[in-house]
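Page 47, continued from p. 46.
Same chain as before, 504 aa.
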Amino acid sequence: MKKSQKLFGASLLALAVSGCAVTSEPIERGVSEQRAKSDLLSMYRDQEPLSGPLTLHQAMARAVKYNLEGRLKIMEEALAKRQLDLASFDMLPRMALDAGYVGRNNTSGSSSQSVSTGAQSLEPSTSQDRDRRVADLTMVWNVLDFGVSYINAKQQGDQRLIVQERRRKVVNTIVQDVRSAYWRAVAAERLLKQIDSLMARVDAARNNSQSMSEQRIGDPVQALGYQRSLIEATRQLEEQRRALSLAKTELATLINLPMGTDLTLATPEDYPIPELKVGMANLEQEALASRPELREQDYQTRISAAETRKAMLRLLPGLEFSAGGHYDSNSFLVNDKWADYGVKVTWNLFNVISAPAAIDVAKAGEEVAKARRQAMSIAVLAQLYVANANYREALRQFQTNQQLSNIDGQILGQLRNRHQAAGIGELELIQGELNTLQADLRRDLSYADLRNAYGQIFASAGLDPLPDQVQSTQVQSIATAIASREDAWAAGNITVPPAHVQIK
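Result:
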């Protein structure tokens, strides 16, 4: 009998264990396909269509408004705000409501025993019904917990401000990436057609040469050398085309355009040189005051200081107020409804022992935050001076490449005149056009580097491309605001506060 009972118990245990086992089913292909369709629709939903050639500031505006990484930071900021609202509720008293039905399978009875004789002094009796309805509403408020919750809410508020600073950094990075990609895409817009046209001419010249070789016209070695030079020219053109062909794709990704969109850029006719009219001393001050990373560390320092205050606050005894209302349907009670209240002092004596160590840890956190901010300040200043040096170097390289492009253009003009006069052959003209095209490419790419280096100076100084207020969230309105801010920088005016504009 005992063996059968043991076997039955083991069987029940095995059944319970097997019932608690959790299995995970693989996601079906159809679910993934539906998710992919939904993502494609949501990624590009509610975007303003392109109208005409895309300008630099319109590209920046579209990136600020539609870039998915920027959208993620907006969501994180909204989440931080909700977390702050939630933390504020911790300062309220604790209130608990209980209501229900309780019962037992027999009577709750008891008797009494004499302490002196040990004899039973009262026959078994009960003062409680077997089935009862009960309800309690209790409120407890601890002054010490309120103080700690208040500091926690302040820390959560600083965390929300940290999220805002991180969003500033993301916006600055996105705008700078768009600036770099846009000017490289402009170079592609200018030169890809020329490359394709020259490649077509090279292919035609190769076909003519091969046809002449097959007809055994001219010196075979000279013909093969001619074809080799044409193939080498084709290789160089293909390398240049590959370097330029991805620029528009990168730009389209940054501004969140659907892949394959026909993107036309507003290419300027000349090459205006951006001039830095702000002194490095002013940029240094602005960088140390406005860089998102340093402002984030300011908030981290404040959070660490709050940790010290919390550790000191926990040394104090807690004053706890309580009040409650109760109901019990027990028929033996004289009063089935009553209220109670009380005040008591609570003090965790172990906090007194551990508090010095907790305070030391909190103060050490403050010192670490300060040291981190100072180290970051040095890195920020280094980035600023590196950006300025890159700008100066990019300016020199562009001026040199522009001079070479002008000279190659003049040489190409002379070669075309000689070719028309039958003074040179097709290969020499193609080689001259190839040299000019390469010089133009170096000029345009160096100009893109110049514009990128110029913008990097203001990004390193922590200047926001957006003002505090934008008239509307339309792309053109944002583009106008960005253009106005950059015009102010170009005029030497950088005394603007950090931007916290909301782009939805």
